[in-house]
Design goal:
This protein is of the alpha/beta class. It contains nine helices and eleven strands. A five-stranded parallel beta sheet has the order 2-1-3-4-5, sandwiched between helices. It has a four-stranded antiparallel beta sheet with strand order 6-7-8-9, with helices on one face. Strands 10-11 form a two-stranded antiparallel ribbon. The longest helix is centred in the first third of the chain and has 13 residues.
Length: 225
């Protein structure tokens, strides 16, 4: 499980990070809402632990943004604000759970695991949005974005990128790309795959970091960092 902790009290954040890492969870920490928002939108997390009263953008407003951009990511608000009105505001902002400080660490772990296991209704509703790191593809509107910058793709470039995004981290051979993307029985005399890979790289990687589309010599290509 990968968790982002957005908490401005460094001692509390350090305590949470250490405890979660002892449970073999991967943990990133941000000490204000602006940095936390950038991390949350550029990386994939199973759960975001979000304080409400933080520098920069507050937890309520940040949660609205995160749920609009990444509705499938679970958000657990972890705060001292415990009135009914606060909780209602938190859930209205899109929070999936709400836990008051101080808290028992065992309860925090249990809630995190429950959120990570829970099927998300948003996943089905937004399955047309494919993401990897800061690369985003809307398969309904046929638009790609990197660093929230729109990238224009031809129909075949779009199909190629969609195939990679549906198979992140997997090395894909030229023959499979030719068959699945072009519906061709692969002819070793054509370099159509290499040509389109280079065209796609020029659009999604040339002006951005980190590079995402890599060649594995003798094996194929892979979308990874």
């Amino acid at each position: 499980m990968k968790v982002l902790v957005i908490e401005d009290e460094q001692q509390v954040a350090s305590f949470i990070k250490q405890g979660l890492e002892e449970q073999s969870l991967e943990v990133d920490v941000a000490y204000d809402g602006n940095i936390g928002g950038r991390l949350a939108l550029s990386r994939d997390y199973d759960v975001i632990l979000l304080d409400i009263v933080i520098p920069g953008i507050n937890g309520f407003d940040l949660c609205k943004i995160l749920k609009k951009e990444k509705p499938a990511t679970a958000v657990l608000m972890l705060t001292t604000l415990g009135t009914t009105a606060d909780k209602v505001t938190g859930f209205d902002s899109g929070a999936d759970d709400y836990l008051l400080k101080p808290f028992e660490f065992e309860e925090l772990i249990a809630r995190l695991k429950a959120l990570a296991r829970r099927p998300s209704m948003a996943t089905a509703s937004y399955s047309h949005i494919l993401r990897y790191e800061d690369l985003r593809l809307d398969t309904e509107k046929k638009i790609a974005y990197r660093h929230n910058q729109m990238i224009k793709l031809s129909a075949k470039e779009f199909a190629l990128l969609e195939f990679f995004l549906r198979n992140p981290g997997r090395v894909i051979a030229r023959t499979e790309l030719a068959e699945k993307v072009w519906d061709l029985r692969f002819n070793t005399g054509t370099n159509v795959v290499e040509v389109y890979i280079n065209m796609l790289r020029n659009k999604i990687d040339k002006d951005f970091e980190p590079k995402l589309l890599h060649t594995r010599i003798g094996l194929g290509y892979v979308l990874t960092i």
